[in-house]
Amino acid sequence: MNVYEIVTQRIIAMLENGVIPWMKPYNVSSPDAINYVSRKPYSFLNTMLLGGRRGEYLTRKQAEALGGTIRDGATPYLVVFFKSSSDEEGIAENDCGENSEARQERRHGAFLRYYRVFHIDDVDGVESKLGPSEIGGASVNEDGEEIAGAYFSREHVGLQWNDREDAIYDADADEIRMPDISRFTGSDGYYGTLFKQIVHSTGAASRLDRATGTDRSCEELIGEMGGTMLSSIAGITTEHQIANAAAYCERWINNLRENPRMVVNCAGKATKAVKFVRGEA
Q: Domain-by-domain residue ranges, the chain?
């Protein structure tokens, strides 16, 4: 089993338990999950693999180097990163701050590598460096209107409200069409839907040009993931209810089994889209 398949099996296991990992309330605007040694925040994909659990993580090697021991029965988590084949050993940037204890899968001149890490609560002999005020719950400075408004002003994407039940991004008109906010039961659903369509609009040829090489299922997952990230940045809950959630989970389980690379590829593209929306690309 290669690294892509291992990652996909982790995500499928969550879906089989009724957990939609890209819709958990991750706060991606603050380092809720970081590596203890490097102090680097984990990527969105790794945050999913960590189950959204906040705090510090270490590999077994890092814990032992600090004089710590992993508790018996502690569950390791999987985290991944890409390492360029041209990087010298020991220099590659990653979420773990080290380059051993990893398996890898080659892709386009780079290796997808993975580590097993442990939450600091499962490590004896190593004290957390985080103060109580740093562990999650950090407020954000932007709300949904500010994020959306800045993007619409910069990119001149149209926005129309109508009486339709569904929301769409019309690529030909470069326009988002949304049900009026009064038709939503809560702001989380409204902004989650709006952000999803905004992420789809970043795929236009004049922006990130995802039309080539991105199939429909992958583009939908990019929208789901990117919408969740933008909602979290705005401080809006992302654990909204999905009608017929069991069927939703089953559909994605089938898609991911057919394409084991989908989660990794789509998470990367979703992160790029979010940075574009925020003017960081």
A: 30-134, 144-277
**191 and 182 in contact (C-beta within 8 Å)?**
no
- Say if CB 41 and CB 33 are below 8 A apart: yes
Structure token pair of residue 186: 């809560």
Please tell me the pTM assigned to this model. 0.70
- 190-214 residue pLDDT tens: 888 899 999 999 999 999 999 766 6
Phi, psi (rounded to 5 degrees) for 171: -65, -35
Q: Are 29 and 233 in contact (CB under 8 A)?
A: yes
Q: For 180-209, give the DSSP string.
A: -GGGSSSHHHHHHHHHHHHHHHTTSTTTT-
Amino acid letter at 20? Answer: I
Q: What does the pLDDT look like over 210-264, one tens digit per residue?
A: 976 668 888 999 998 899 889 888 888 766 555 566 777 888 899 899 888 899 9
Q: How far apart are CA 99 and CA 172, in angstroms?
A: 46
DSSP-derived pairing of the beta strands 33-35 and 103-107: unpaired
Sign of the CA dihedral running 131, 137, 142, 148: positive
- 55 near 91, Cβ under 8 Å? no
Which residue type, as a one-letter code, is found at position 44?
A: F
Q: How many residues does the chain have?
A: 281
Helix, strand, coil share (%) of the chain residues, nearest 5: 40, 15, 40
